[in-house]
């Protein structure tokens, strides 16, 4: 049985963690399968949006505490604990820089590396009763996968530090209130809410979204003048076919029909 279920649904790539017996905890093989699924996306113009979810009772409980196991794929051959780039970091970087919008559907829980992975996605949708947090300090573990970079940028330094030091778990409803997730909905509304967002993104101006995503990632920590220069450089580097359609549709007072180019 695959640790990750990958399905292509027209312009939508669906990736679902499939280790319900381990609460979808991530090991090297699961990470490898996710990266394999994402690898062709940047060169696949027909793929317009990625959705990540989890099978069973929750989204992801974090790293597999039973042991990540010895890597078997060529990607991690010879990997040592002292490696400069961990598999988890490679996954986070890939999601953050993917030139497609990534939506994550969270039910049950997103803990530790599960929260890390969710933070690397662009739009986080969860149930109101889901639990989100990082329990690493409860287990005397360090955080090497990016949570200390991502969480303060999502909720602010003070709240992020408190969540980490106290191993605090918050509800999906509270996560929406503090800006950790985009939307928190009733459990029975999760699928419809996610699919509504995915449907919009699947027909949106995909390359425009990719450019905006890159700009925000690069400019987050820049002074305004440097950010403005970066924006000018980006504008000079990209030609978007959908731009003319967007302008034409505006003047014709109709919905645009974007090709994603």
Topology summary:
Elements: E1 4-9, E2 12-17, H1 28-38, E3 49-54, H2 87-97, E4 102-106, E5 109-111, H3 113-120, E6 123-127, E7 131-133, H4 147-155, H5 157-165, E8 169-171, H6 172-177, E9 183-185, H7 190-202, H8 206-219, H9 224-237, H10 242-251
Parallel strand pairs: 2-3, 3-4, 4-6, 5-7, 6-9
Antiparallel strand pairs: 1-2, 7-8
Helix pairs in contact: 1-2, 2-3, 3-4, 4-5, 8-9
Question: What would your notes on this structure say?
Answer:
With 261 residues, this protein is α/β, with parallel strands linked by helices. It has two domains: 4-202, 2-enoyl-CoA Hydratase, Chain A, domain 1; 206-251. Helix content is 40%, strand content 15%. The protein has ten helices and nine strands. It has a six-stranded mixed sheet with strand order 1-2-3-4-6-9, with helices on both faces. Strand 1 (4-9) and strand 2 form a beta hairpin.
């Amino acid at each position: 049985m695959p640790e990750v279920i990958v399905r292509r649904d027209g312009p939508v790539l669906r990736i679902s963690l499939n280790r319900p017996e381990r609460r979808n905890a991530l090991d090297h093989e699961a990470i490898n399968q996710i990266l394999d699924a994402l690898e062709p996306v940047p060169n696949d113009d027909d793929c317009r949006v990625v959705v990540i979810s989890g099978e069973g009772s929750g989204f992801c409980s974090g790293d597999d505490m039973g042991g990540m196991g010895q890597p078997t794929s060529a990607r991690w051959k010879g990997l040592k604990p002292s490696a400069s780039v961990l598999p988890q970091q490679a996954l986070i970087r890939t999601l953050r820089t993917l030139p497609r919008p990534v939506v994550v559907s969270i039910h049950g829980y997103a803990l530790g590396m599960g929260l890390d992975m969710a933070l690397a996605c662009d739009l986080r949708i969860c149930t109101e009763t889901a639990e989100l947090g990082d329990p690493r300090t409860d287990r005397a573990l360090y955080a090497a996968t990016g949570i200390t970079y991502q969480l303060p940028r999502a909720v602010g330094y003070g709240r992020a530090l408190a969540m980490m030091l106290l191993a605090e778990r918050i509800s999906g409803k509270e996560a929406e209130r503090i800006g950790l997730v985009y939307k928190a909905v009733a459990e029975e509304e999760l699928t419809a809410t996610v699919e509504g967002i995915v449907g919009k993104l699947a027909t949106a101006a995909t390359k425009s979204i990719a450019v905006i995503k890159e700009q925000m990632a690069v400019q987050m920590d820049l002074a305004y003048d440097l950010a403005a220069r970066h924006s000018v450089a980006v504008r000079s580097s990209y030609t978007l076919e959908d731009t003319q359609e967007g302008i034409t549709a505006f003047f014709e007072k109709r919905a645009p029909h974007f090709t994603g180019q």
